[in-house]
Structures are given as C-alpha cells and as structure tokens.
Amino acid sequence: MVNEATLEINQAATLPELQEIRVKYLGKKGLLTAELKTLANLTPDEKRIKGAALNILKNELETLFDAREAGLKDAALTARLSSEALDVTLPGTRFQTGGFHLLTRIIDDLATIYKALGYQVVQGQEVETELYNFDALNIPSWHPARDLWDTFWLTDGRLLRTHTSPMQARFMQAFAPPFKIVVPGKTYRFEAVDATHESMFHQLEGLAVSDDITMSDLKGTLEEMAKGLFGERTKIRFQPSYYPFTEPSADFAVYWENPRTGTSKWLELGGSGMVHPRVFEEVCKLRGDTVYAGKRGFAFGLGIERVAMIKYGVPDIRYFFQNDLRVLQQFRGELE
Ligand code: PHE
Predict the structure, then answer these.
(1) Host domain of residue 137
(2) Which of 24, 92, 175, 313 has its CA 20 to 30 A from that of 332?
C-alpha cells in the first residue's frame, strides 16, 4: 500500500486531485482507516504490533501528503507570479500633450520683460467704439489717417479695433498718472491677406505717463525690450514717422543678427512717439478733470507676428492661424 500511495501522491497534478487521494487512504472510509478498524478483532499482542506498524504508515503518508501539498502550492504560486509579471523596462505609451502657441509664448516673453521694468500688463476689448479707436486718439472722422486703419464695422456702429491704442485712452480715463502699462491683444484690419498681412493679428501697446518722461526713456525702454527678445547685441534705431496720437513720432527697427544664417539686418518692428498733447486733452474731457494737463508720456506699438516671423524665420503670417501642427509643433520644444 505504501508504494502504491507514494506513487499516486507524487503523480497528483493538482490540489483537488491530491485531496481525492488523501480521502482514498486517510478518509473515514479510506483504505488505511479500514485497516485500522480491523485491529479491534485482533489479540492484544497482534494489536500492539500491527497497530504500531499502521501508525507509522499513517504518519508516513501524512508527511508525504503534506510535502506534496506544499510542493503543488509552491508551483501554483510560481506559475501565477510569472503569468502576472510586469516588465517595467518596456517603453511606456507616450501621451500627446498640448503646448502654447508660438504667439502666446512671445506675448508671455514680452510681459515678463516689461514686468521686470515695472510695467503692469492690462487688456482691452476687441470690439471698440469710434471714440476710443479714433477720436480720442486725435483721429477725427475727417482725418485722412483713418484710411490707414480700415476695419470691420458692426451694424451698430462699433468696430473691431484696428490697433491696441484705444487702451491708451481707456486706461487714462480710468486711472491717474504716473503709470506704465503694456497691452497685448488681438487687432483687426480690413486687408487683402498675403504673406505679411492678415485681417487679424496681435499687437503689444506700451504707454508710460508721468511729469518728466522723455524720448530717451522711450528709446532705452525699446532697447531693453529688443535685448530681451533678440539678445544683448541687438541695437535699436528710430526713423521719423507720423501718427496722429504721438508727436514727435518714430518707427523703430531692431538690428537682428540671425544665428541661423549669420546675416544681420535692420527690421522694422513698430511705431512709437511722445503722447500728443491733444490725446491728453481728449482724456481730460472724458474724465472731466485736469490730471493729465501738462503730463508727458511715451507710447509704442509693435506687431507680435512680426517678432515671431523674424526670430523664428516663419516666412508667412498665415502659418500662425492655419492650425497645421507640422508648423506649430516645431516651436513646442522651447515651451517646456
Ligand atoms: N497704433 C499704431 C499702429 O497700429 C502704432 C503706434 C502705437 C504708434 C503707439 C505710436 C504709438 O500702427
């Protein structure tokens, strides 16, 4: 019986199978149990001898069962562990992440530069009235300069602002000097679209007003901006210009050394000048007081797309707004 049982125990492949064999030998109606029951009919001497032998057998079988059970449990665990194993060295799934648009990034860079110079960043509204877009900026309706800023009109007489300059008048109407602000935002022009003109684009307006601001403050400020945008070696140049709301007026250009091509040239960035006394007068009228009488200030405005096109060699302004990820993703690496 021992040999037979040993063989069966070792051949049991699963725990339930092993349990069946255990019942077959050691269960209430098991083979060994039956043998033990026959002891009752024997003489005391026979009983002692056979009983001892059967007990040894029983212990032996129990040891075998326990060992096999432990072995099977072990094997099951090993199998389960290897089937559930996770290879942490496998490459993971890369999720698509968003990024900031190049223009957003340049607006952020400009805001950082100007905040370091003590400026507040404020925003205006894209739908404007004629009063703020033109009249308060010394551009009355008969003025030929209105032709410079042809725009989209709403049916109620309002318009899409042609520049960020309306915020000059709005800010001065609401706040007293001295102050320094920059105003980034969207602007609109009724224009034939081509590689350098879009009907919607972005500007950054600057306005600083106090008692004694001069044109050299303006130039120094623009130079700081240019260095922040294009590097320490950048220079800035003024050229005489005309804007109804500044006098004198100057367009400014930056000297840009292109690291990709090694070439340098002057590139027009925007317009600027000293705030025209008539603008202060208009603002005083709007406010109903005289806090802007006799003040001095400078103002400037530049095109954000132009900065991006120069700095990153984007050849066509339309690329910014076509949502072509092949274009936009090129500039994403620099965002993080
Ligand atoms: N608003 C002008 C434009 O859009 C730029 C400008 C701003 C010029 C401030 C002078 C002062 O062309």
Answers:
(1) 102-335
(2) 92
